[in-house]
Design brief:
3 helices, DUF6587
């Protein structure tokens, strides 16, 4: 009996660790939102899942989209600026492909 309980606790702990580490950020935010609606502390669950505490609805009023949109909220058009080269113009990133036939 005790062995089964201990094994179940180890499996739950492993599943929580894997979900906090390897799930995409959008899924982790959904989990935090789901757990906060069920009475869990939103700040602690957000810290555990390594995400920011948010309202979860995606409306943009809570400021959770600031890091994704360059600080402009959900509807902003101010994306990140491209890196510039030393000559002042935008830097070009070229990927060279070597075809072997």
């Amino acid at each position: 009996m005790w062995q089964e309980i201990i094994v179940a606790l180890v499996i739950v702990a492993a599943a929580l660790h894997a979900s906090a580490r390897f799930l995409p950020a959008a899924w982790r935010r959904r989990i935090v939102h789901f757990l906060s609606q069920r009475g869990f502390n939103q700040d602690k669950t957000a810290k555990f899942f390594r995400t920011s505490a948010s309202c979860g609805s995606g409306c943009g009023s809570c400021g959770s989209c600031d890091s994704d949109n360059g600080g402009k909220g959900a509807g902003g058009s101010g994306g990140p600026t491209p890196p510039s080269s030393s000559s002042g113009g935008p830097a070009r990133r070229v990927i060279t492909l070597h075809l072997q036939r």
